[in-house]
Write a structure and sequence with these properties.
Strand content: 15-25%
Distance between the termini: 24 Å
Bound molecules: 3-[O-phosphonopyridoxyl]--amino-benzoic acid
Number of domains: 2
CATH class of the largest domain: Alpha Beta
Structural class: alpha/beta
Oligomer: single chain
CATH architecture of the largest domain: 3-Layer(aba) Sandwich
Helix content: 40-55%
Shape: globular
CATH superfamily of the largest domain: Type I PLP-dependent aspartate aminotransferase-like (Major domain)
Length: 472
């Protein structure tokens, strides 16, 4: 069952060690304990094709995380590389400041306006999701300012949300470890609870709990004062927080509350956009129509960095209609190479019907196959939504997820499981003890079977390992 164990040649070993040494000496990785990584040595990826990656030691890995929730069309797409190459030769850069721009930026903005729900006719480009959410903060405050309500400054977000790592992005994120460093959140950003049924829904039906979790927004708006609240922001499905799939009742109720108090509704579509849930945007899956949508990742399938904010007419009518300059932007807003790559990526998504395929075929198949893991002694709360899936490692199983006994978090069982996954050529992410996947959208039925079998095998190995350690 073990796929393609490391077959590193002496030359590959030498090359790997040399890179690891340089890495430890010079490269500070994001969200990484550099000291412990240096002791262990990083893994260096060198090649990708379809849903597979290869590292410097020649080991093949099935990439269950699509890079970092982004390589939606899979690796090795020459068409995207060619589009970027052609654009680099023609015009590698021109900015969009000072009453000028470049053709790919205009073409991509127009294309996105056709893909998004009809109320979205304008786009602001950034280079990342974090910058997109910083743009959201500035844009919603500008919007209320222009409307003569400058006191509407506060954005409400959720605990265990992830919205990026810039000052505003990290503040909007609801991650205690991030807030503990650098005096965050910045003023004007507050958090409510997350719609996590396993964590807080005991004794209620999922739909009752969804309504209750949405009511926390109304309570917070009333507590802060309606005239102080600018916007609410949330990921349709929380990604980095551990694939938290809200009950169906949650988002429509959130939307109703936002409309009631005239609060702008912002969907962070950085993970959920571009097909991840089987729709162009995750908001469509949940049947809501936000006022702003942040995007990044899947817009280029990660081939080059690009992000942005889709702006609905409610907001653009004010921003544009009232005249005056929005004093915000980046050198590389609307970078022609990134926009050309995005246009080709979108061509691929459309021509191959990948988003429809996820919605009607491979998504339901993943759901069915992933659900089969629920009989594993370690697997509880097994859930799927489009092409994201997650399961919780449980010390003791019960029919009801709320009755399962989790492991002591200090044991870091998720990390133990993750290393068995990697060891067997499977990239699956651990968020605490929740194991998650978000595979490339190109995955076939046979590859879904292969992935689920590999996950089961690694869960077995993890179980044996935990037993040996006396943890089961
Ligand atoms: N919003 C969401 C919903 C995200 O998932 C960002 C914003 C920020 O995007 P940039 O491009 O600035 O990174 C993200 C990023 C993880 C992980 O551990 C997830 C992300 C980034 C890094 C790690 O799952 N998502």
């Amino acid at each position: 069952m073990v796929t393609d164990p490391s077959t590193a040649s002496p030359a590959q070993e030498l090359y790997t060690r040399a890179l690891q040494k340089l890495d430890a000496a010079h490269y500070l990785h994001p969200f990484t304990d550099s000291k412990s990584l240096a002791a262990k040595g990083t893994r260096v990826m060198v090649r990708g094709e379809g849903i597979y990656l290869w590292d410097t030691e020649g080991k093949r890995l099935l990439d269950g995380m699509a890079g970092l929730w982004c390589v939606n069309v899979g690796y090795g797409r020459k068409r995207i590389a060619d589009a970027a190459y052609a654009q680099m030769q023609e015009l590698p850069f021109y900015n969009s400041f000072f009453q000028a721009t470049n053709a790919p930026a205009i073409q991509l903005a127009a294309k996105l306006a056709t893909l998004a729900p009809p109320q979205f006719q304008h786009v602001f480009f950034t280079n990342s999701g974090s910058e997109g959410n910083d743009t959201v903060v500035r844009m919603v405050r500008r919007y209320w300012d222009l409307l003569g309500q400058p006191d509407r400054q506060i954005l409400i977000s959720r605990r265990n949300a992830y919205h990026g790592s810039t000052m505003a992005g990290a503040s909007l994120s609801g991650m205690p470890a991030m807030h503990a460093q650098g005096g965050l959140p910045i003023p004007g950003i507050v958090h409510i609870g997350q719609p996590n049924y396993l964590e807080s829904g005991q004794g209620r039906s999922p739909q009752e709990f969804g309504m209750e979790a949405a009511s926390w927004l109304e309570q917070k708006i009333l507590e802060l004062g309606v005239d102080k609240v600018a916007a609410f922001i949330g990921e349709p499905v929380q990604g980095a927080g551990g694939v938290v799939i809200p009950p169906a009742s949650y988002w429509p109720e959130i939307q109703r509350i936002c409309r009631k108090y005239d609060v702008l509704l912002v969907a962070d579509e950085v993970i959920c956009g571009f097909g991840r849930l089987g729709y162009w945007f995750g908001s469509e899956y949940f049947g809501i129509t936000p006022d702003l949508m942040t995007f990044a990742k899947g817009v280029t399938s990660g081939y080059v960095p690009l992000g942005g904010v889709l702006v609905s007419q409610r907001v653009s009518d004010v921003l544009i209609g009232q005249g005056g300059e929005f004093a915000h932007g980046f050198t590389y807003s609307g970078h022609p190479v990134a926009c050309a790559a995005a246009l080709e990526n979108i061509n691929i998504l459309e021509e191959e019907g990948l988003i429809d395929q996820v919605r009607t075929d491979t998504g339901p198949y993943l759901q069915q196959r992933f659900a089969s893991l629920a009989d594993h002694p370690l697997a509880g709360n097994v859930e799927t939504c489009g092409f994201v899936a997650g399961l919780n490692l449980m010390q003791e199983k019960a029919a009801d997820a709320h009755a399962c006994r989790p492991f002591d978090p200090a044991l870091q069982v998720g990390m133990i499981c993750r290393s068995h996954m990697f060891g067997n050529g499977m990239i699956m992410r651990a968020v605490g003890d929740r194991m998650i996947v978000a595979p490339p959208l190109v995955m076939t039925h046979a590859q879904i079977d292969e992935m689920v079998a590999l996950i089961r095998f690694c869960l077995d190995e993890t179980q044996a390992d935990l037993s040996k350690r006396g943890l089961l």
